[in-house]
Amino acid sequence: MLSTILTGYISYIMPKRLFILTSFISLAVGLFLMGPSTILGLPNQIWLFLIGLGLTDAAQGFLFIPILPEIIESFSQRYGFTEGEDEQVDEDISDRASGLYGAFYYTGMILSPICGSLVYEHYGNFNQTCDTFAFLAIFYIGVYYFGNIWPDRKTLWDYDREKQKDEFALY
Question: Contact, 57 vs 33, CB < 8 A?
């Protein structure tokens, strides 16, 4: 619940793409701690596991909430629509974005346990399984950075902050 409140506030302070990148970094760190990582030489302590589990859970909340508005914004930019001009177009964009979001979310829910169990079966221990998924997260961080943030790095912070302050106010 705390991650939901923080996500709403932080996503209005910083651009969604940078927030998603920060969430992926937190997820990778959480996976290294949750193992705990044998590659990093972390001791096998329960408190490291609990910190990693909490960080991983918070990072997942930080990831899933801002992705849907980012998908809607991408649809609007790609097809040249302005949100709020035509109600039918807004509904179509929202329906497509929600369908795409749901399809990938539920595909991940089906494939994640299968992939996790295959990696665990291959290595035979939980520590190396978490290390593997942490390195996959780091790989995806690089792909996400060079595919989504690097091309727009000059215009990423150029958005109407005053409008966002008016839309979201903490009392």
Answer: no
- Helix, strand, coil percentages in the chain from 3-state DSSP, rounded to 5: 80, 0, 20
Q: Is residue 1 a contact partner of residue 145, using CB atoms and an 8 Å limit?
A: no
What 8-state DSSP symbol labels residue 171? -
- Report CA-CA distances (Å) from 7 to 15, 17, 21, 59, 91: 12, 13, 13, 10, 24
Query: How many whole angstroms separate alpha carbon 59 and alpha carbon 56?
Result: 5
**Nearest Cα residue to 34 out of 132, 111, 123, 115:** 132
> Which of these, 157, 148, 154, lies nearest to 71 by C-alpha position?
148
Count CB-CB contacts under 10 A for residue 69.
12
CA separation for the pair 101, 69 (Å, rounded): 10
User: How many whole angstroms separate alpha carbon 95 and alpha carbon 73?
Assistant: 13
In angstroms, the CA 142 to CA 1 distance is 29
pTM of the full predicted structure? 0.79
Residues 18-63: tens digit of each pLDDT: 888 989 999 999 999 998 888 888 898 999 999 999 999 888 888 8
